[in-house]
Amino acid sequence: MRIGMTMPVMEPDLDAEILRSWATTIDSGPFSSLCWGERIAFDNPECLTFLGAAAAWTERVRLVMTVVVPQLHDPVMLAKSLATGDQLSGGRLTVGLGIGGRHEDYEAVGADPSTQTMRQLAERAQLLRRVWGGEKLTESVLPVGPAPHQRGGPEIHVGTTGPKTIRSAAGWADGVAGVTLDLDTTKQAELFDIARDSWADAGRPAPHLATSFWFALGSGDAPRAQVTRHLHHYMNWIPSEFVDAIAPTTGWAGTEKELEEVLGRFADIGTDEVQLIPTSSDIDQLHRAADVAAAFG
What we know:
Blueprint: E1 2-6, H1 16-27, E2 33-37, H2 47-57, E3 62-68, H3 75-88, E4 93-97, H4 103-109, H5 118-132, E5 155-159, H6 163-169, E6 175-177, H7 185-201, E7 208-217, H8 222-234, H9 240-246, E8 252-254, H10 256-268, E9 273-278, H11 283-293
């Protein structure tokens, strides 16, 4: 099982120095991927602009956009941007597509909320593939370029936490990019089995199976308090009292040894990759997580 690391892009008070330090440290190993996602109505870096920076700051690590919502973009320009990122990174890009969980992001860019469906997501995924395959969409002299470094374009994973979404994506996605709030490996194993069966029924190669969870490393009450602070900041669309209710059991908080034990349980159910999500931009958290990730190299 591989261990990826998510950039602290949802933390407050970021600057280029913090982001570059995290990116170059992740790239130095032992992490398998450098991850980040999209959100519009929030104080975080724009995901496609960040893709260019990540491609320039790194040389080895796979770049995983865990969730991009194509309904928030012009689909052809999105395909062109992603192909450019794949070219700049030398073919290290993986793209997770999802419908998004917040109407405010649709409203912020003037997108149609009625397109927030799996059917619309599938249509846009297919359009990305057509552009990346060099198909002319108009009577233009040339197709939309550049061609991605990876033939046919980056792998596409579906961002999801539910069985219905997994089944509907089997025809077009190459894998599953999930998230677990309570780290219940029994439930996660059930979802992975659904994915394996759905991809097999669709005559597709076995899917890449990834999940992610928030983490905080330390001793005593400090790690759980760190997770709680992060959740209140990130889940700003949810009433504070609800965040307080879920915070004690959401994500993971503890010592390095305990994190290694938890990751071992995900390895036991056949997880291909766990992508850790930091709850602080303190780079010490990254260094401590790297020591744990090295055990799974």
